[in-house]
Amino acid sequence: MVNTNYYKCPICGNDNPRFIGVRNNHPYCRKCITFRGQEAADDYIQYDYAEYTLSYKLSDDQKRLSNQLVDNFKNGIDSLVHAVCGSGKTEIVLESIKYAIEHNLRVGFAVPRRDVARELFLRFKYIFKENKVVAVYGGCTSVLEADLVCITTHQLFRYEHYFDLLIIDEIDAFPYNGNDVLEAFFKRSLRGRYILLSATPPQSVIEEFKNENKMILRLDTRFHNHPLPVPQIEIHRGLMKYYQLSRVLRRFYAENKPVFVFTPTIDECEQLYQILKFLFKEVDYVHSKKSDRNETIERFRKGQSKILITTAVLERGVTIKNLQVVIFNAHHVLYTSAALIQISGRVGRKIDCPTGEVIFIASKQTKEMESAVREIERADKSLHVMLQGRKAK
User: Fold this and answer.
1) Can you tell me whether residue 11 is helix, strand or coil?
2) Of 87, 141, 215, 336, whose CB neighbour count within 10 A is largest?
């Protein structure tokens, strides 16, 4: 009989006997058994030329961090970019990607969510026109090798000691954050250095980056040098919450401003839609289980709906001009400080419309709400001090 007490999974590193089974006298890991399939081949001929196209210039702060990231990569230093929402994190890694490709090195850009991986693929395909770029996510795994691989963290199991440069965005997001299997996939896929990107990195990651050969880079400025919107906290109970929400939405509606209304759960999302559809004509809803969510989001982008009720599915990776945000039931336990900051960061992301409102409507004020407001105010103060310093020069 096989003794599972001494077995360690070669894919995810699990050595807990509780999650190890035996089949045909061979041990297997229950934690990552669903992650099986074709793995990336070792014979892809890496292109040694890369040139990217941007329709806008980087800010001075973006250029500074971009250069530092390239230097870190050259010197074998892993980087954590702790940058505010809307700072242009993707743009500052372009030089590092370019450098790696031109030196025949394998590059991956990973994110936790499939929708974001798909959007990144389309974006990078446009930016790096001369290079082969592929997307790898659930349901899209026919081509695994390219000059640049846009991939979900779930699919990293297909790449064993493969990437010379691996960039992971949204490290604080579900389902990557706190998932030991996905973190093991990340470490297993490396044969070189990595760059982590986050507006709200977990404290455990910050502590890890205090070690040798690691560096934290901060960016407290958005690319257009406008402050982050500081959320307004409104406390109402019972039916007054719904009354206040309708008042806020009527004002935005009259001003022709598109609005995301965030709810903590799918049930609340659908229930709120059933209420608001009697008050507003151009209202819709979206969540992870809605089959036509891409079409729903596209209708909103085109202005065919003005109010979109949503869950955390639109917490990241979305840029809408002149967008306003309301977080309904912001006191809910699912709304951590990090989540509230991320959602707030949906506002003011366009250079020609850099301002907007974020409103927390809640039954009570929580420490998470207070922490989110303090962190945003801290970043805005840092921006103010920096701009004053530049004026003085």
Assistant:
1) coil
2) 87
For the stretch 269-295, what's the b/e string if a residue is b when 16 or more beta carbons lie within 10 angstroms of its beta carbon? bbebbeebeeebeebbbbbeebeebee
Q: Give the DSSP letter string of 82-143.
A: EE-TTS-HHHHTHHHHHHHHHTT--EEEEES-HHHHHHHHHHHHHHSTTS-EEEEBTTB-S-
Longest dimension (CA), the chain: 76
pTM confidence score: 0.84
pLDDT higher at 178 or 131: 131
Q: What is the pLDDT of residues 141-174, one digit of tens each?
A: 999 999 999 999 999 999 999 999 999 998 988 7
* Contact predicate 228/381, CB 8 Å: no
pLDDT exceeds 70 at position 391: no
**Number of residues that make up the chain:** 393
Most confident stretch, 52-61, 154-163, 378-387: 154-163
- Give the relative orientation of helices 367-392 and 337-344 as an angle to the nearest 10 degrees: 50
If one counts every other C-beta atom within 10 angstroms of the C-beta of residue 110, the result is 29
The DSSP line for 13-54 is: ----GGGEEEETTEEEESSSTT--S----S------------
Q: Which residue has the tokens 């890991």?
A: 29
> What is the per-residue pLDDT across 192-204, written as a single tens digit (0 to 9) for each?
999 999 988 988 9
Question: What is the C-alpha to C-alpha distance for residues 376 and 275, in angstroms, rounded to an integer?
Answer: 32
Angle CA(210)–CA(194)–CA(45) in degrees, nearest 5?
Answer: 160
Q: Which helix (H) or strand (E) holds 193?
A: strand 190-198
